[in-house]
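A common beginner's mistake is to predict each chain separately and then try to dock the pieces by hand. The better habit, illustrated here, is to supply every component at once so that their relative placement is modeled jointly.
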Amino acid sequence: SYELHLLRHAVALTLHHDAITGTSQQHVANDFTRLLSEAMDTCSKKVSNLLSYLTPTWGSSRRSKNNQQFVTCHQMNVSQCRFLETQDAILLLVYNPLSVKTYHYVRLPAIALHYSIRDYNDEEVEYQLVPLPKAVINVPGRTSSAIQDLVFEAENIPPLGFTAYYITPVRDQLEENSYAKKHSVSNS
Amino acid sequence: EADMEVIPYITNEYLRVSVNKDTGFLESIQHVDGVKVQVSQNWYYYKQAQQTLQSGAYSFRPDSDRPTPVTEKVTYHAVRGSLVKEIRQRFSDWITQVIRLYRGEEFLEVEWVVGPVPLGTDLGKEVVSVFSTNITNSGEFSTDSNGRQMMRRSCWNDSTSHQQKKPVASCYYPVTSRICIHSLNTSVELCVLTDRAQGGTSYNEGEIELMVHRRLLTDDGFGLEESLNEEAHGAGLVVKGKHRILFGNFRQEVDDLTFSERVAHAARRWQMEPWLFFASGEKINRRKW
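With all components supplied together, the output reads:
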């Protein structure tokens, strides 16, 4: 498909030795980044389309293509994901590209102090909320209001397959306000 | 509610990680099967001075063979929970780090945030993380330059008749996924896995060094005519990344796997870690789920 061709072209271009080693002027390095980002963005729509064939239709009873839109967050390394922070309930797919079964600790920016996480067997999953280090909260350019990470273990992810979780934050505005106030005091 | 205590160690089913109570530096890692390694870790930087040949995009030319430590002690506190335990260290205004153990994982994860690198009187800094251990590796270490095959490396010129040590810049090798040292007499091997390609060496006995950030005002004269001084949001670039430490007895097999096979699996599992895709859950009714 055209989208995949764009991504192949961008990846092939960044296999040039100047891209790999950074021996290029800043504007050239920025252009490599731009090419890759645009191609990945174009491809994510394609990936979402393919994932909707893989996932059953959750809302309607008809056996048809599920028209769920799947998104990827590229700033999880600084605990930032606008989509996650604006949803009341999240469907999370954890896709395993390895040819062997694996398990993986998922870390998501948390907006609430309590969560319900259900796996594909509809069983509650144990989680832990971990306060973010100040250095992460203060990373230049970070705009997220999350001050904790939601951590849980995705187990038994099949090879070249995925497992799914249904995540709903349990909101308690009073408790959250007092936590945020206490945390900002300790921050200062 | 995470409890912020100052007990200087964290443990999981496999490892017990201790920090020095006074300096706050990493001090030792003990494996449940008995293998224990003394390992200290600190952050250093190579200064860039006015000299004929200088560091730049193509080359690494520090003004001395050994870097300057960022600090002699760190402030730290612990955060503990059922799934993940952390010791958080603050080295300076521009370097902080989290030492982390996950339940059920046999590696120690070190997550660092470095930058903006301050430009003082020098012409730039090249920042390295140095792990100092009690492993007598006789100057030998190995790195993978392609994510698959481990190559033996050494900072000693084995071509000359007498043992001559190379300058550090000649002893920096590509580390695509991991760098390892091992001791023939104690059979202990320690590997540091990287989350991206870095330059690395083992310049002193028992040491592993990885370069994670460079901020330079100099140009190396190879034609780029631009120094490595990337900025973002009006300040010097801030980099964030992880190292993972695995160690063990390299002569012992576990589940029919040698230590180096287990390290290779861990590196591949990290490099090809799962991808997360999100969709709105509001249209999914509970019964259907």
